[in-house]
DNA sequence: CCTGATTGCATAGCTGGCTATCTAAAATTA
DNA sequence: TAATTTTAGATAGCCAGCTATGCAATCAGG
């Protein structure tokens, strides 16, 4: 076929993303974590107390998705949401002690999954792949 | 941080996959299609009458996911499911005329999205990206 | 031939992504 | 200052992925 499934970038990226997600899911399940919370945790481990809006813009995710993710994280004792005293609309998001303690093992799990999923590539090829994806994300035509 | 979010392959792949999915979603919406059906359609456009099991193994997707996807496709008039006379457990999946007619415009939309999402890369870089992803998928450590 | 294991599929229930829409709090402007 | 617009967040409803489980048809051994 003129649109070979294994030759289409979009098809391959979707497949590879599923492979990654499946692997990471099993690796962080023992920690009580799920994949959807991971990007949020990375931001908050770096900078605690961000607003929901901050997270939305930093992670390129829809506001509604972020709100739901934060609700699950709150339910699971990973974060607290406190209204910003300076702006009654905003809520600042703070990690619990439990979530702070998960930083090291969670990152180790993610690195292990990166290794496993890219086991077929040389170190140089992995760097190339990362560089190409970063460039693609930087240069995509919006809309 | 030691695990730079923009340097992690898994993080980038997830992000890029979302970018692709968003773009393709809007492009194929006018055709009455959604992204989840796309891989299935590619297989059936190539080989009509596959069983659900065939699709599951070819697409590396869970059986339950495939069953749900096929239900939506049936509801939307894209496929028919017929029991295999030779094996009462199997169901063979056949495209409707409507789905067959969507082949050309759907593939054109996917190619357009590939172009847009990889607009920041040269042609050579796109080929490299595709080759690296294929190699990664071929060589990942299972489990 | 009958029983038990295997196979193909459906369903329930969850996460996580999206759009659309609503509310309340600021911010702007007439 | 009062009315309007903009902004932050929540919620409803959908698609798409997953695991776990149940059921019915087939297959394999005894």
UniProtKB/TrEMBL annotation, chains A, B:
Keyword tags: DNA-binding, Transcription, Transcription regulation
GO molecular function: DNA binding; DNA-binding transcription factor activity
InterPro entries in alphabetical order: HTH_MarR-typ, WH-like_DNA-bd_sf, WH_DNA-bd_sf
Pfam family, one: MarR
Domain HTH marR-type, chain residue ranges per copy: 6-138
Designated name of the protein: Organic hydroperoxide resistance transcriptional regulator
Organism annotation: Jannaschia rubra
